[in-house]
Amino acid sequence: MVIGKVTGNVVSTKKEDSLVGMKLLVCELTEGVDAGKKIVAVDRIGAGNGEYVLISTGSASRLANQNKDAPIDAAVVGIIDEY
After folding, report:
1. pLDDT for residue 35
2. Domains of the chain, residue spans
3. 24 has which bridge partners?
4. Chain-centre distance for alpha carbon 40
5. pLDDT at 32 over 90
6. Burial class of residue 77 (count of CB atoms within 10 Å of its CB; 0-12, 13-18, 19+)
7. Cα 33 to the center of its chain, rounded Å
8. b/e per residue 6-35 (b: at least 16 CB within 10 A)
9. Going by CATH, does the domain composed of 2-79 fall within 2.40.50.220?
10. What is the CA radius of gyration of the chain?
11. Is-above-0.85 flag for pTM?
């Protein structure tokens, strides 16, 4: 898992069928070697702009969204209250 800050939303009217209905967030990574890098993460928990979040990456992110067939590489799995 990595820590990121939500910086915006992605709106996509045409996308893979398995992604329909999923909220996509732009998150800026805040820690480690990749600090400052922006990624797109699927959000099923309702994170908002400016919030710090826990992001699962790789194959584990598909499991977090209970959709093993979706092409997901990053998923928001928690909203951070403080760190």
Report:
1. 92
2. 2-79
3. 10, 42
4. 6
5. no
6. buried
7. 18
8. beeeeeeeeeeeeeeebebbbbebbeeeee
9. yes
10. 12
11. yes
